[in-house]
Amino acid sequence: MKLVFDFDNLLIEPVPVSDIYSRKDIDIYNCGDLPIMTAPMDTVIDSNNKDMFRHCDVVICLPRNVKSKYNDEFESISLDDFEFMYMHSLFLPGKSYLVDIANGHMHKLECLVGAVKEQFPSIILMVGNIANPETYKRLSDAGADYIRVGIGNGNACLTTVQTGVGYPMASLIRECYKAKKELKNPAYIVADGGMKKYSDVIKAIALGADYVMLGSIFNKTIQSCGDNYLFGFIPVSQSVAELLFKYKLPIYKKFRGMSTKEVQKKWNKKRLRTSEGIVTKRRVEYSFYTWLDNFRDYLRTAMSYTGSRNLGEFRNNSVFNIISDKSFDRFNK
Fold it and tell me: What is the mean pLDDT of residues 91-117?
């Protein structure tokens, strides 16, 4: 056994002296995109609000059965659909696909990734989820372009609670990042699940994540596509919810994991398996635009402390210290 860590166990150490005098000198983009993605959850993003994310340079991952006319927006498919599309040559050139499954450790997935990428090299393929750095290596070698890392960490996910299987996110990201630097054709690291605050997202990037996938954080915005409830029990439309939110009335959003029986029924599954997710309502806390403005500023500030002018430098320059619970309690206000 070895000791592994989560975000609250770590702090980023500032460099002794930084020569960055203005946050305007810092580039927080990956080839035009912010280092964040939407989680493919039907209480986060749909066809009605996806353009909002797109116009703000957030990478889009759509829930199953939501289509896109843009090649750079990931459409989600099941493992069975992935195999069917391979057998019938249904992949569109240049299109982005997310094989949306909970257990990315299956040998079948690894074999299909290799076969699909060999036959359809122009498609962009995201796979996962995985919770072992060795699996990251194998799926990268198979040809995956993006790999979702993290099992059981999501705020609507019960996998680790119920099964005892998982890997703390901070250590998982860092070990995948170490492996990435040794591979010839490494996949992008997508940290997926359990981000609760700005510092979690920023630490994930500093540890080596190319992108951080956000579900819970985006669901708590007034613009998310979850059903709206005034006071938590009176259904209201999206337009009414946005108006009431401006007057500071309590609006709640429906939030659910994509492995819940409720979602399985929506997908017309004949056999419902045990749920590994939750269905709940949560109070809206902020506007998407406010959250995003804050995130940009906080990320630039963190990067300036490490003397990093771009995200690549941030990942390479960041030094972490392990802290005690008392140290965390001191600043966790």
Answer: 96
